[in-house]
Amino acid sequence: VTAPRSGAEAGLVTLAEVRAAARRIRGSAVRTPLLPAPWWPTPLWLKPESLQPTGAFKIRGAVNALAVLDPDVRARGVVTHSSGNHAQALARAARDAGVPAVVVMPDSTPVGKVEATRALRAEVHLVPVAERLARAEQLGAERGMVLVPPFDSRHVIAGQGTVGLEIVEDLPHVGTVVVPVSGAGLLSGVAVAVRALAPAARIVGVEPELAGDLAEGFALGRRVEWAPDRTARTVADGLRVCAVSELTWAHVAALVDDVVTVSEDAIRSAMRDLVMRARLVVEPSGAVALAALASGVISAGPGPAVAVVSGGNVDPALLRDVLGPL
Amino acid sequence: VTAPRSGAEAGLVTLAEVRAAARRIRGSAVRTPLLPAPWWPTPLWLKPESLQPTGAFKIRGAVNALAVLDPDVRARGVVTHSSGNHAQALARAARDAGVPAVVVMPDSTPVGKVEATRALRAEVHLVPVAERLARAEQLGAERGMVLVPPFDSRHVIAGQGTVGLEIVEDLPHVGTVVVPVSGAGLLSGVAVAVRALAPAARIVGVEPELAGDLAEGFALGRRVEWAPDRTARTVADGLRVCAVSELTWAHVAALVDDVVTVSEDAIRSAMRDLVMRARLVVEPSGAVALAALASGVISAGPGPAVAVVSGGNVDPALLRDVLGPL
């Protein structure tokens, strides 16, 4: 069973859809505050999505995607393919809704992520990486379960867009919003809300240089795809998606001002700043927005900037490594 | 110049004073959310005061204490004696108010804390530890500056009490509120708000075993004082105050249900949980409330518990140490 297909042909996600998502996720996602960064030389606020249950913004899209389903459909459960934060978010959202979740993961996934997803009572299937999507679709068909993809869904995008809604609620005169990019679900949703409510604000996506498919495509004016072994090199394991979807590309092309890239060193340095100065535990993916400001690829001003800190699921060994040697 | 003395003889801080403080600190302190802790076996929420500017709840009391001053008095500036989070909070509050701040610190203070306080444009005086209060009073008298003590002030207590106000706003049916204790300014203020608005809630203070002066006094029914070389042994450098004041003792005796202690191992273990599971960077002092729940000295339920995570100013070497070996 496939959810009603709502691709680019159905038009961009609307502000009304984001507002509806905000009502649906209340009580399931944390209403994160904007944190001032007085240690930064220009006006900067952080949006700490690392503080969400399951440690990333993904819970917003997952809860919204489940909430919009017809109750009879939802009762049969949901399936997805993800090795990362979306898997745990969907597992948690399904558990809280009292419905089953099936997660297809590559057999190369670190055991800790598999265990964390199982701890949320999801049924995990490990398959060769190339078979992920096919297996997820097969399981969905066999069991009558809806597939909730990590970003290629307008309900997921609308859920992630609540991040942008909250930013503008808290800082109506925001000048620049800086957002990590993987499949661009977060960037798309944030862009819908910010473009509608703060039309003059700059909206900028950030990728690691080593996974810069969207930045390359943005410069070329068309969607491009990178080879998986190419994006696998970045420390930012949450941002290794090799291509955005047609749906997220349409949002980026229509609503986003720029997409930039940052070096691995800049990512590590921003992680350290976020830990020691903002007292936030962040994963590498969660640090790229600050890294872009720190490395000067995005200019400061006019007006205050917001850097979205998208997630905090970091391996303790990496965290120790980033903190030292001292 | 000394601010109007408002000791125990003037009565306990009132809910109205806490509400007034909440209005005064708006925009200066972060309205921190309650974070669910789904990884905890019983219903638990965290109040992450580590996310405040200067990394601790102290900004609340400092801003309130400055705001209540007569403008002519405030313009002359403020003085305090502190080596810890109160020093930086008062320095920041004074800078934001455009008035001078003088901070007297022991000459044994780690250079990083001195530098951080100077970076906030405070004038720092380093003196032998025993001379701190006398020097602060002398400087205040010479310059006509009001002394804003770390906890022995009803305006400071009222400011810290806004933590309790927000807890009850967000979780009206809270069952237990667990609060780190040093001079008991935070515990006193939280107790005022919680006792008034959620009368059935348990209010519990937590100290390190190695700095358990209030726990000992609570059991004896009278204020006791420990020797500084005794409390200096705990890793929780923010909780080494050797005695509460008459004013905070009056609040604790009247409003608090229990004061318990935790081991050094429990503090380190709770720090690790807060970093890896809640994605919060915490200092040892900020972890004692969770440590008390984890070590079973406070029973779970009835109703949900809130652990106040009071601060996040941790030395990176200690943070690395707590995270490993892996």
**Biggest interface and its residues per chain?**
A-B, 29 and 29 residues
Average pLDDT of chain A works out at 93
Number of helices of chain A: 14
Low-confidence stretches of chain A: 1-9
In terms of quaternary structure, what is this? homodimer
Percent range of helical residues of chain A: 40-55%
The largest pleated sheet of chain A is described as: 6 strands, mixed
Going across the biggest sheet of chain A, name each strand in turn: 1-2-10-7-8-9
Spell out the helices and strands of chain A N to C.
HEEHHEHEHEHEHEHEHHHEHHEH
What is the CA–CA distance across the termini of chain A? 54 Å
Q: Assess the beta-strand content of chain A as a share of residues.
A: 5-15%
Compact description:
The structure is a homodimer of 326-residue chains. With 326 residues, chain A is of the alpha/beta class.
Question: How would you describe the overall organization of this protein?
Answer:
The structure is a homodimer of 326-residue chains. The first copy, chain A, is of the alpha/beta class and 326 residues long. Chain A contains 14 helices and 10 strands. The first copy, chain A, has a 6-stranded mixed sheet, with helices on both faces. In chain A, helix 8 links the parallel strand 7 and strand 8. The longest helix of chain A has 17 residues. The termini of chain A are far apart. The N terminus of chain A is likely disordered. Chains A and B meet through strand 1 and helix 14 of A and strand 1 and helix 14 of B.
